[in-house]
Design goal:
By secondary structure, the chain is α+β, with helices and mostly antiparallel strands. The protein is built from 13 helices and 16 strands. A hairpin with a 5-residue loop joins strand 5 and strand 6. Helix 1 packs across helix 8, helix 10 crosses helix 11 and helix 11 crosses helix 12. It is rod-shaped and about 165 Å long. About 1% of the residues have low confidence.
Amino acid sequence: MKKDLSNAQHNLNITRQMNRYFLYLAVGIIIVCTLSLGILRFNLKENLHKQNLYFVENVTGFIEERFDNIESALNRLARLPLNTNKVDGNIGENITLRNHLTEIISVMPDVTTVAEADMDGHYICIPYIPATSERLKGFDPRTRPWFKHAANDTDDVFYTAPYKDYVTKRDVVTISQAILRSDSSQTGVISFDIDLDTLRSSLNSFRTAVIGNVIVVDDEYSTAFGGHSHIDEEEVTELQRVAKARKGVIYLEKYDAYYYFKKIQHPSWTVVFKIESRDLNNYIYDTFFFIISFVTLIMLLLILACFWWGMNGKLNALSMRIAMGIRQGTFDTKSESELLLNEINSVNDSKQQLVNDSRTDSLTGLKNRRAFDEVMPTMVGQAQNLIALIDIDNFKLINDTYGHAVGDLVLKVVASLGEGQMHAGNIAIYRYGGEEIAVLFKGMAKAEARTLLDDWRINVATREFREMPSGVTFSAGLCDMSASTVTDVITAADKLLYLAKKAGKNQIVLG
C-alpha cells in the first residue's frame, strides 16, 4: 500500500514533469528558431537577388524604350520623300530644311542635336551653327564615325560609342541613318545626338532597397555612362569571362561584390547593377534586427504572461489552502501531489458511494430495481439460471393494522434474514417493488435453490415480532430463466407466485 502510494505521488508530481517538458520545449524552440532564422536569411538574400534583377530589367526596359522611340523617329525622318531630305545644293543654307529639323528637335526632349550632312560634306545642325562659325572651321562631317558607318550601311541604324561631341564638347551617343531618295540612291546622313548626362540623371532617379551603382557598359565592358563609379579593367575581364547569358547575377570574390546584368540589343550595351557584399549583408542584418527585435518582444510578452499565469496559480492555490485551513482549523502542509492524491481518492470513494447508492434500496439495504433491471438481460435465455419472486403475505393488512412503521420493520427483518441465508456469491437479492423481493440464482440447481428459499421462509415464519403477535410469512414462485426475454421470465415467475398465494400462502411453488 505504501509502495502504491509512493508511486502515485511520484506520478502526480507534475512539477518535475513540467520542468522536464519545459526544458524540452525550450531546446526545441531554440533549434526551431535557429533553423528558421537561417532559412529566413537565405530567403531574404534570394528575394534581394530577385528584386535586384527585376530592378535591372526595369532599367533595361527604360533605356530600350527611350532608344526605340528615337530610332523610330530617325527612321521615319530618313525615309520621308520630302524635299528637305533631298540634298540639292548647300544644305547649310536651306532655310526650309533648318525649320523642319527645328520642329523635330522641339518634340524630342532626349535629342540634344539633330544634324544632317550630304555626300559632299555640306552640314547643318540644330541648334543652328552657321557654316562660317569658328566652331565649324576645319570640320568635315564625312570624317565622323556616325557619318562613315551610316553611309556604308544604308539599311540599319548606327550607334556610335560614347564620345565627346566636336561642337558641344559634351559626352554623347550619336544615332545615325542614311538618307535615301525615292529611287533609293543615297544623298547623305541624318543623326541624333543623345546627351548621356540626361540618361545618367534618369538612371539616378531609380531607387533600390540596397545601395548600389548602376553602370551601362558597351560590348567591351567599357563604361558608357553610369552612376558614381566605373568598372576597372580587371573587373571587365572577369565579367566578360563569366557573363555569358543575356541576364543574371554573378559574384566576384576578389571584389566581394554582386553584379546583376542584362544585355540590350540596340544599342549593344549591358546594364550592370553592382552591389558590394557588405551593403547587401548590412541590409539583411538591418532587416534581421527588426525581425529579431519583434520576435524577442513577443517572446518577452509570452514569458511575462506565463510568469503572471504561474504566479497567479500559486497565489490562488495559497489562498485556497488558507481558506481551507481557516475552515478546518488546521493548515495542511502536505505537498501538492499528496493533496491531489488524497482528493482523487476522496472523489473516487464518493463516486463509488454514489454508484452503490443508486443501486441500493435505502430501506432494506438490498439491491434495488435499477440494479435488477441492469443484470436481468445478461441472465435470460440460460436454463441454469433461476429467478424467484417473493411476496410478503398480507402486507397491506399489516400496514393498515399496525402502521407503516411496522410494515417497514417487517421488510427490513425479512431482507436481513434473507441476506443471512443467501450469502453465496452466485445469489443476489433485490427489492423488486413494495413488499416484493426478487432473488437471482446463477448456475444453481432448482432443488438447492428451493432448499435455501424454504429455510429463509421458515426463519421468517418462526420469527417473533413484539409489535405484531400474529407473525409474518411470505410466498414465492421459483423457475428457470430459459425464456428468451426478460418479460417472459418475470411473467412465468409471477404466475408461480400467484399459485402459491392461491394455494394458501406461506409456501414456494416450483415451475
